[in-house]
Egg-lysin (Haliotis discus hannai), 46 residues
Amino acid sequence: EVALKEEIVAGFDRTLNKWLSAHGRGLTPDQRKALFFVNRRYMQTH
């Protein structure tokens, strides 16, 4: 259960990294951190 969640989060981070490299040029490091945080929280509650 936990391992599966880790996998999902890791895959989600990779997807988000791809998205950020394509679209995130204007974001500050803090905004990036916030995105990762929000996305992780979202993944944990859905």
Q: What stands out?
A: The chain is about 85% helix and 0% strand. The mean pLDDT is 86. The chain has one domain: 2-45.
